[in-house]
Fold this protein.
Amino acid sequence: MDFSCRSADGILVAAVHGRVDESTWEAFADRMTSAIDQATAEKLSEVMLDLTDLDYMSSRGLRVLTVAKRQAEAANLSITLAAPNDVMREILAISRYDKLFHISDSVDTGR
Amino acid sequence: MLVRFWGTRGSLPVAAKAGAIRAKIARALVAANGHSIANLEQAGAFIDQQLDFATGGTYGGSTACVEIESGDSFFICDMGSGLREFGLNALKRCADGHVRIYNFFQSHLHWDHIMGFPFFAPAFDPGAKIRIHSAHPDAEDALRRQQEEISFPVPFDWLRASIEFVAMTPGEPIAVDGLTVVAEKQQHSHDSYGYRFTDPTGRNVVFSTDSEHKADNMKDEAAFIDFFRDADLVICDTMYSLADSVSMKEDWGHSSNVVAIDLCHEAGARRLALFHHEPTYADEDIQRMHEESIRYEELTRDGNALEVLCAYDGLEVRV
C-alpha cells in the first residue's frame, strides 16, 4: 500500500495504491488521519480519495474510511471516493458503502 | 461432527405469509413452463436443479438454535425458538436409545436466544439430564424469570429433568462428553460469548453469534482471528450490511457478512455459515446477501478458498 497527497483547487487529493487489507489497514489509517489533518491545516473543504490504482480494499479498509469520515466531519470536511476500479465498485456495492460515501467516477476536482 | 441448524433467524421469529408462498409457487410455475413433470419425484428433481433456493425453499424463521452432533450426548448452542422442534426430534431419538443428556452452550441470555426453553419438551422428562453451560453468572435467573407467572404459565420448578448450570470462564477450555469447548467474550449488550468445539479427531466448529466488530476497535479482532484459527466451520453473526453496522445500527451488537469473511480469511477457516438473519429480510434478500458474500470472498481471497454457506432452518453440515 502506497499513499500520496496533493492539493488541487481547494481539495486535498489523496491517492492510495495497491491493496488495503489486514496487513496494511493500520498504515492506511495513519495516512488518512494525516491527510485530514493536512486538509484542515490548509483550510480545504474536501478530501478526495483517488482509488484509481487501488486493487481492492477489504472491510478493514472500509472501516478505516468510516473512522476517517467521522474525523473529517468533525473538521467540517467532506470525503469523496473517486475512480474506483470494477472490483472496488463491487465491494462498495456489496458492503453498501456506496450508500455512505459520495463516489465520483473520475478524479476531477471540478474547478 | 454433524451440525444441524434448528433456528437461524435473528432477534424475532418470523413466518412467511400466504403472499410470499404464492409468489414462490408462481415463479416455480413459470419456470416449469415447457417441462414435463409427471410425478413428485420429477417435481423434486426440478426444484433441486432448476429453482433457486428462495423460490424452491425458505431460510426459515426460528431464532438461534444449533445442534452439534458428536459422541453420545446432545450438544446445543442457544435456546431460540428453534429449540422447540429440536426437543421433539430429540425425544424421538431418545425413544430409539439416544442418551438423555443435553449440553447447552449459551451465547447470551437475550430473549430470542432463550425463548425456546419453556417449550423444550425434554425438560419435562424426569430421566433427562440438562447441563446449561454459560459464562453469564445470571443464566439461571434469566431462565427462571421468563417462566414466572407474569410471562408464562409453567414455572421453572415444575420442570422434571435434572437441570444443572455450569459456569464457564472465557479462555479456559473444558471437556464435556468427548468435546473440548472454550468460550470467547464478544461485544454485545450485557456481553455475549462464542464457543469453539473440538472433537477427539481435531475437527472443530466455532459458534459466534451476536458479536459486533467495531470500526474503531479493529486491533481487538486479533483475538477472534485466533479463536477462528483453522476452523472447519465458523457459524457467524452476519445480520447487517457493513454500512448499516457502522452507521444507523452501530452498537446494536451485530456483525456483517464482509467482516465475517475477512475474519475467516485471516484465520484460515475452511467454511463459514452466515447466521442470525435479519428478521425483516425476505428469502430473496437473504439469498442476495449469500450471493454477494460468495462474490466478496472471491474478490478478496488471498489464499485458500473459504466456502460460504448460508444457514437455514433444517440445514445439516458434516464437518
Q: What stands out?
A: Chain A has one domain: 2-104. The first helix of chain A runs from residue 25 to 41. Chain A touches chain B at residues 21-22, 25, 56, 58-60, 62-64, 66-67, 87, 90-91, 94-97, 99-100 (CB under 8 Å).
